[in-house]
C-alpha cells in the first residue's frame, strides 16, 4: 500500500484553507486505498523532518502560501529525496515571486498588466500609476494583501494597517472587465470559469466564504477568448516550469466589446482543494471526480533532488 504523507496547515496567512485542503485530499486518498496520514506543519523544520522519518512513498503538498508554496518545503523534500506533488522548487519560487513571475511570463509573450515594483514608502508620497491601480505583496497567494486603489482611497492608510505588504510592493494597472481562472492538469487546460464576487473583488474573503462569489462554468465569454484563455494558462504553466496541477488567474477586458483582451495576473502552483475550490469544480466539469483528481496528482509526484 502506497504511504502518502499529506502536509497541510503551515504558518502562512492561508493556514485555515490549507488545513481544509489537506483534510479533503487525505480523505479522498484513503477512500482510494492509499495509506494517507496528515501532518500539520508548523515553523519547526526538525519536527517536520522527524515526522517524515522514515520517509513516506510520496508527500502530498497541500500547503498554501509562504514556506509551502514558495519552493522552501520543496527544497527540503528534494534534500530528503521524497517525491512530492505539484511543482518543484524553482517553478514554485518563480510563481510565488510576483515580480519574477511577470518577467518570465512577459518573456513567453504573455500579456500581464502594466506594473512595477516600488518601495513601500514611495506609494505613501505619490501614486505610482494613474488610479485605479492595484497594490500587491511580492510573495503571498490567495489575494492576501491585494488592494485596489480607487479615486477616494488612501494608500498610506492601507500600507499602515496591512502587515502582509513588505518594504517593496508590486503595483499594477487595474484591468477592468471580468475575472477568469483556468486549471491546468499536466499539459491540458481543463476549463475557464468566470468568477463574480457579490461584493468587491475576488479577495481572500470572497474566495473562501461560501456564497460570496458566483462561479460561472463554463465562462460565458466569446469562443475565441475562451480558447485563448485555455492556451495562455497552459503557456504560463509551461513557461514557469510547473508540473502537476496549477491554476492561472486572468483578467478579461471586454469593456470595448468581444473578443476582448486577456491579461495573466498570476499562476497558483498550490491551488486550493476545498469544497469551494475552483480546481475540483473544473475537473468535475470535464468528467474527473475529486478522488480521481487527487490520485492523479499523487501518481504525478516527483522529486528534483
Strand order of the largest sheet: 10-9-8-11-12
Largest sheet: 5 strands, antiparallel
Task: Please write the string of helix (H) and strand (E) elements.
Answer: EHEHEHHHEHEEHEEEHEHEEHH
Percent helix: 25-40%
- State the low-pLDDT regions, or none: none
- The H-level CATH homologous superfamily of the largest domain, spelled out, is ATP-grasp fold, B domain
CATH third-level topology of the largest domain: D-amino Acid Aminotransferase, Chain A, domain 1
Instruction: Report the C-alpha radius of gyration, rounded.
Output: 19 Å
Regarding CATH, which class of the largest domain?
Alpha Beta
CATH architecture tag of the largest domain:
2-Layer Sandwich
Number of domains: 3
**Strand-pairing-aware structural class:** alpha+beta
Mean pLDDT, rounded to whole units?
A: 92
Strand content: 15-25%
Report how far the terminal alpha carbons are from each other.
24 Å
Report the strand count: 12
Shape descriptor reads globular
- In DSSP terms, counting alpha (H) and pi (I) runs of 4 or more, how many helices? 11
Which features characterize this protein?
five-stranded antiparallel β-sheet; 3 domains; alpha+beta; 305 residues; Dna Ligase, domain 1; 25% strand
Please provide a written account of the structure.
With 305 residues, the protein is an alpha+beta fold. The protein folds into three domains: 83 residues, Rossmann fold; 137 residues, ATP-grasp fold, B domain (D-amino Acid Aminotransferase, Chain A, domain 1); 59 residues, Dna Ligase, domain 1 (2-Layer Sandwich). Helix content is 34%, strand content 25%. The protein has eleven helices and twelve strands. The strands form three sheets. A five-stranded antiparallel β-sheet has the order 10-9-8-11-12. A four-stranded antiparallel β-sheet has the order 4-7-5-6. Helix 1 crosses helix 11. The chain is globular. The relative contact order is 0.16.
